[in-house]
Amino acid sequence: MSTPDSTAIRPLAAIYTGSRRQLIGRAVAGVLIAFFIFGAVTTDSFTSIQNIRAILVATGFVGIVAVGMTVIMLSGNLFSLSLGTTVSVGAITFLWALKLGLVPAILITLGVGTAACAVQGLVIGAIGANPIIVTIGAGALQAGVAAWLTDGSSIFPPAGDKSFDFMTSTPLGIAFPVYVLVVLVIICELVMRRTRFGKEVYLVGENRQAATAAGLRVTLIITGAFAIAGACAALAGMLLGAFNQNATLLVGGTFTFDAIAAALVGGSAVTGGRGSVTRALFGALIIAAISDMLLLRGYSTGIQIMVKGLLVLFVVVIVQLNAREDRA
Amino acid sequence: MRISKTLQSKGRIAAVVAAFAVVGVAAGCGSDSSSSTTPAKVDTAAPAETTAAVADVKGKKVVLVSCFDQNPWCKIYNHTIIDGLKAAGVDVTYLEDGFDPNVQVQNLKQAIAAKPDAVLVVASDDNSIVPAVTQAKAAGVPIFNLNGRAADGSIPNLTSSILANQKQLGQYAAENLIEGIKAEGKTGGNLIAITGTAGTNTAKDRMEAFNEVLAKNPTFKLVATEDGSWDQVKSAKIAQQLFAKYANQGGIQGAYGMADYMAAGIIQSAKQANLPLGVKNKGLIVTGSNCFKVGIDAIKAGEQYGTATQAPSVEGEFVFPLIIDFLAGKKIEALNQKEEGRVTADTLGEFGEVCSLA
User: Fold this and answer.
1) Exposure of B36 by Cβ count < 10 A (0-12 exposed, 13-18 middle, 19+ buried)?
2) Domain boundaries, chain B
């Protein structure tokens, strides 16, 4: 007669629990996909070319910010609550700097956005400061400096300046920011998968203490992750300024939370180390498509916001269940 | 030791990067003559008797609780009021809330506790300030509601309301769309409206008047009303989705963006959807209903048919003489509304300058 071995029982329990979690996750995902397909088929005009273009336009700006937000998430620093403000600062800087020429305006804007966020990454990486607190403070600082320098006024491009018109063009009927987003995703995905820096971002995000113990340049990596996010936000701001033809500190609107939602819906783990910028692209696309579907079906703004919230919640639960199973 | 050295090194990097960021922002956003916000003089001078009243109000205390200077419209509106009151010797405290109702209520409580001679409030949310207005009345502090109509619960406790005529703004928007579409030789059409924050009295009043005009012109049909939340990007996104939705249902002939910058978003979306714009191209007719420079420029370019005034400097200059009168002991009406103007290419000479400040 043998006594059950406790070390043998644990893995079995873990497998059982893991399978159940996986089943729940897949069931929820299946229901969501089924709802989406049903909605797409039964919503008038949803599959029209013009509407697909509208969905892509809605994806463009948010997707670019979401790419940056995802890199921060992958580095294990939750998310930045100041990227929306950096978008506004980018739009303001770009439109003003156009008086110096298009290329200087682009370089200055990218430089300002990159530097503003790199400083935040440096503080977080070097002293282990809480990213939420640092980015809230940095957002207020950016807004304050920009409000002081612009005197609260709207900024317009120089009269008659057409040099940036290509940013609002629609090659092959698709808005220019969509092309920018696709190129950005390809570049970032290559950087994250093929370079030492990218691989170290994943390692730091997975386990910062282990990465530190292994001698990885943790502070530099986190600074780099935030710098990339800042460059993405500045890029979005530049395109937004060109689209709006005016800029104030308010143009950043809901970009911070929309980008967080896109990154989460894309399936990146908020705790770091898991996910990809490509997933963020799909996250932004899914949110834009569902928002569009609800609007076409005549649902109110309140319902649209509620559904977006539920979607984020469902995906976070699924990701969490899968992550637990992987650990088990 | 290594950590210390690392931190020292990183500290130097931080200093360089921070300096770069600040210099960069400064370089990007320095003084710009094209963005000057000095309010223009307009022909809405204070009533004659106000001049005499000025001597009686020196040293009186007023607290202005309002939206913040990061919003160009708010900045000009608030500072026109502040400058006008200060010129009369009134001591003005300005509490900004950033359109946050919670902050605004805290600011109101703080203002009431200071027992000033008057509190002026531009409500971020009509309903959330009802308790604070009641509290002001109970504390004997005169409180004035500015710009948008107050919630019904506030009205009995208000000293006075000094408002933009929101219904006129909505009425002019509808008239602009109908006139523009008729100028293209059409007798009717599908319209969309993208509003400011739904549920606020400002949006409700404008849409009520807008719909009243449409009711008299039944060939013009409002097919969609969506909440654009005073957000240009959101308005642009909604517009493009609605263009797609109605592409096979007769299309959209007219679009109303409740603010000019929302109308600008609609115009950009129309361009991206390759829709023609303006009477000249027999395309989409777009209107705003409170004027900004971006709208005036679009009217000049023929891309926007019209808008309506609610110019911040003019609205502000309507407010402060009435407050001075009140502080001097004069009776003012419970409801004071500023007459608004309809802006089209034909009236740009009259309104173009004051509408280009924000």
Assistant:
1) exposed
2) 48-158+312-339, 167-308
A53 contact B CB<8A: yes
Angle between helices B101-113 and B130-139 (to 10 degrees): 0
Phi, psi angle pair for A105, to nearest 5° = -65, -40
Q: What pLDDT, in 10s, does the model give residues B131-175?
A: 999 999 999 999 999 999 999 999 999 999 999 999 999 999 999
Strands of B249-346, DSSP E: 254-257, 285-287, 306-308, 335-338, 342-344
Domains B48-158+312-339 and B167-308 share a fold: yes
Nearest beta carbon to residue B243 from set A50, A143, A250: A50
Q: Does residue A320 or residue B167 have the better pLDDT?
A: B167
Q: Give the per-residue pLDDT at A120.
A: 97
Distance CA A122, CA A224 (A): 9
Q: Which two tokens stand for residue B333?
A: 């009406």
Question: To the nearest 5 percent, what fractions of chain B are helix, strand and coil?
Answer: 50, 15, 35
Structure confidence at residue A45 as a pLDDT band (50, 70, 90): confident
Where does chain B show beta strands of DSSP type E?
61-66, 91-96, 118-121, 143-147, 160-164, 189-195, 220-227, 254-257, 285-287, 306-308, 335-338, 342-344
Q: For the whole model, what pTM was predicted?
A: 0.80
A25 within some domain: no
Residue the block writes with tokens 């602009």: B176
Handedness of CA A261, A262, A268, A273 (dihedral sign): negative
pLDDT tens digit sequence for B126-142: 899 999 999 999 999 99
Superfamily of segment(s) B48-158+312-339: Response regulator (3.40.50.2300)
∠ Cα B251 B256 B261 (to 5°): 120
Task: Judge whether A296 is closer than 8 Å to chain B, CB to CB.
Answer: yes
Question: Which is nearest to A64 in space by CA: A230, A193, A253?
Answer: A230
Strand intervals (E) in chain A: none
What is d(CA B355, CA A26) in angstroms, rounded to the nearest whole number? 56
B24/A108 CB distance under 8 A: yes
Do residue B70 and residue A152 have CB atoms under 8 angstroms apart? yes
User: Do B72 and A249 make contact, defined as CB atoms within 8 angstroms?
Assistant: no
- Give pLDDT, residue A305: 84
**CATH level 3 topology of B167-308:** Rossmann fold (3.40.50)
- What span, in angstroms and rounded, lies between the C-alpha atoms of B42 and B45? 7
Residue B32 is predicted with a pLDDT of 35
Contact map slice: A 56-95 vs B, CB within 8 A: 57-58, 61, 89, 92-94
Contact A96 B241 (CB under 8 A): no
- The whole-chain average pLDDT of chain B stands at 86
Q: Looking at the complex, does the CB of residue A98 fall below 8 Å from at least one CB of chain B? A: no
Residue in B235, B260, B239 with CA at minimum distance from that of residue B191: B239
